[in-house]
Amino acid sequence: MSNSARRMMTSPPLSGDEAQREERGPASFLRVPDAAATGCVTINLDQLARNWMGLADLVAPARCAAVIKANAYGLGADRVIPTLVRAGCTVFFIATPQEGHQARRLAPQADIYALDGLLPGSAESFARDAILPVLSTLTDIETWARLGARLGHPLPCGLHIDSGLNRLGLTARDARRLAADGALMSGIDVRLVMSHLACADNPTDPKNRDQLLAFETLTTLFPRTPRSLAASDGLMLGPAYHFDLVRPGYALYGGQASISNAAPVAPVLTVTARILAVNDVAPGESVGYAASWRASRPSRIATIAAGYADGVPRSASSSDGVACGHVLIAGHKVPIVGRVSMDLITADVTDLPAGALAAGDDAILLGAGLTIEDAGFAAGTIGYEILTRLGARFARRYIEAGAES
Prior knowledge:
Layout: H1 3-10, H2 16-23, E1 39-44, H3 45-59, E2 63-64, E3 66-67, H4 69-73, H5 77-87, E4 91-94, H6 97-106, E5 111-114, H7 123-128, E6 131-135, H8 138-151, E7 155-160, H9 172-180, H10 182-186, E8 188-194, H11 206-219, E9 227-228, E10 245-246, E11 269-281, E12 286-287, E13 293-294, E14 299-304, E15 326-329, E16 332-337, E17 345-348, E18 362-366, H12 372-378, H13 383-388, E19 395-400, E20 403-404
Parallel strand pairs: 1-19, 2-10, 3-4, 4-5, 5-6, 6-7, 7-8, 8-9
Antiparallel strand pairs: 1-11, 11-14, 11-18, 12-13, 14-17, 15-16, 16-17, 19-20
Helix pairs in contact: 3-5
């Protein structure tokens, strides 16, 4: 029995518009599940779990953690964290106190590290929820030690050592001062010493080796303490960078951080948005704000319900003769033309086959054939920003155990 015949037996009659789309052949679009939604972010939790397990196998015997800050990079921490727990993850990294408390509720047995350390007023709630701040200043270490003394026992934490990124972390001088201060060291329970690489996306950059040597040297001050240096890109530099724990974030969600070493992961998400209208534009007519793009030929323009409020960067706009961002429509990659506005983008669909699309169909903003990296490069940014800026007003659809929810 054909798919079309099976649908006729199990589905209600199609509306007029739906019937016209059905006549055009097999659907190339992912349908938005909420009739009121302008777009949809579809997250494959099964693939997320496979990504984590693949990375864990790659770095063994080192442990594999998961970075779930920024609402699990915009994909929904409430669904991502339980998925990773079931996959076997027992160590999580967050940034803010709110993220830490959410993670504790969803992963009650896990080790949870707060990368931003002790924000004002967070110490007592961290201690109450067994969240381990990653301490990067002597002042924060003293604060944590005082709280432990008041509670009657040293409190667990991580230490961040600056190995050359010059952002957060104890300087070499402060790390030596801390290691030499027996009273202060006895007042904290250091469970992890970590640092962060500056140029790990480029395996040939000599700064990677410089930071590795600096980290190896400074961590001798804290013998027998587990160490962590590599995140998504750093773990692809090889076993010398793995130490006891790696901290992938971007790679978990299907991102390829390294410019030359592909991680053993696959995309986790697809983002679609509704096509609101398809209109003819005469030669010489402009499209969008500031009239920055004008048609050089008789053109057809699709207007799509997505804009910078939904995470499409304004820098993905194109002007006359300069194409930037793209979308996928009916299996064809087409350029965004004109300015990206708050709620809308416009795409040139002139070269698509007749009848290939209509208002009500969906355009793919991210998915097979249009990666996070593609979108970031076209907009002059990185895939991390594309991923974490996905707008909240798009519906979320999750695929787990082969079923949708």
